[in-house]
Design goal:
Elements (H helix, E strand, L loop, with lengths): L7 H27 L7 H19 L2 H25 L4 H24 L21 H4 L5 H8 L5 H19 L1 H11 L1 H6 L4 H28 L10 H11 L4 H21 L3 E2 L3 E2 L2 H5 L1 H13 L18
Antiparallel strand pairs: 1-2
Helix pairs in contact: 1-7, 1-10, 1-11, 1-12, 2-3, 2-4, 2-10, 2-11, 3-4, 3-10, 7-8, 8-10, 11-12, 11-14, 12-14
């Protein structure tokens, strides 16, 4: 493949298809961290839900059962994390890292035990989510620009893609225009003031972790049931950490966090497109260097924006009720 064979349209469509993994995880982390709980465990919840979603979808040959099972296990992990961080007042960073390491190993061992395929699940085949074809796609398919927009950019995606993009305004509305959102933000900024106003800080933080578990499960299900069609060890490839970086980039605000997810999705699409391409002057770039692109961008973003980002003031601080 030559440099001229690269198409901007393909990169844009790939960006749309890469972004949901990050969007679901970032919005999940947004609820947790806005309530005052550091959610380093996003990566572990993604892996747990990806494995269970793939395993149940294969066993039942129904992707929706797989998604529901993924929600259940992700919520269980999130509530366990909440128990450590909220009830037991444990170190939230250590708890999150422990969850990530545990799920990385546990999903591999369980997959190997049940399927004997080197720690992966069998191909899902027909048990994957089908793509939605928008009405009139056949009629406009050959129309320049419009056909591409209607059939590839807007159409041809699974329901989880549309859910991911619809989630952004919904999360914004919940956080900034509902009573629950006000209480959630208060618990993350000044939990003692929220407690004095009659808000149960622990209950609110548990609710945030519950929501985070549900949303994060969609990220894992999307990876396994939509993108790959199987589960593979550590297939999240740092998506949870990229989602955390997107939150820092977006200053813990839904819309700007969404832009951060699109940015990382774009660089992921560029990475895929550049593999095997002969570039002018430099020639063909080794695959290992291309795979570094999203993570190099992560370091640059963190180095440039960390000092400017303002996290919730009580994030990572266990709440001890005043007597």
């Amino acid at each position: 493949m030559s440099f001229e064979d690269l198409h901007l349209g393909s990169i844009i469509v790939s960006t749309v298809r890469n972004a949901p993994v990050l969007i679901f995880a970032a919005m999940a982390g947004l609820f947790a961290e806005r309530s005052g709980v550091v959610d380093i465990g996003l990566e572990g919840k993604i892996l747990a839900s990806a494995f269970v979603s793939a395993a149940v979808a294969f066993a039942t040959q129904n992707p929706w059962y797989g998604i529901l099972a993924g929600v259940a296990v992700s919520v269980a992990v999130a509530l366990l994390q909440g128990c450590i961080a909220i009830t037991q007042k444990g170190n939230q960073l250590v708890a999150g890292i422990a969850i990530n390491i545990t799920m990385s190993g546990l999903t591999f061992v369980v997959a190997q035990y049940f399927f004997q395929q080197g720690g992966r699940t069998p191909d899902l085949g027909e048990a994957r989510l089908s793509e939605i074809v928008l009405p009139g796609s056949a009629a406009v398919a050959d129309v320049p620009v419009l056909g591409w927009i209607w059939t590839q950019l807007l159409g041809g995606h699974t329901v989880l893609v549309y859910l991911a993009f619809a989630l952004v305004p919904l999360v914004h509305w919940v956080l900034y225009h509902t009573r629950f959102g006000l209480r959630l933000r208060a618990c993350g900024e000044n939990p003692h003031a929220a407690d004095a106003a009659g808000v149960s800080v622990e209950r609110t933080r548990y609710a945030a972790m519950l929501i985070a578990g549900i949303l994060c499960s969609f990220s894992g299900a999307y990876l396994a049931i939509v993108q790959s069609g199987f589960f593979l060890r550590d297939m999240s490839a740092g998506a949870g950490y990229l989602a955390l970086t997107a939150m820092v980039f977006g200053n813990w605000r839904p819309f700007y966090t969404f832009l951060g997810c699109l940015m990382f999705g774009f660089f992921g699409a560029v990475q895929i497109q550049l593999e095997g391409v002969d570039l002018p002057v430099v020639g063909r770039i080794p695959g290992a260097l291309i795979q570094m692109v999203p993570y190099v961008v992560t370091v640059i973003v963190l180095a440039g924006l960390m000092a400017k980002s303002v996290a919730p003031k009580a994030i990572g601080v266990p709440f001890v009720k005043s007597r």
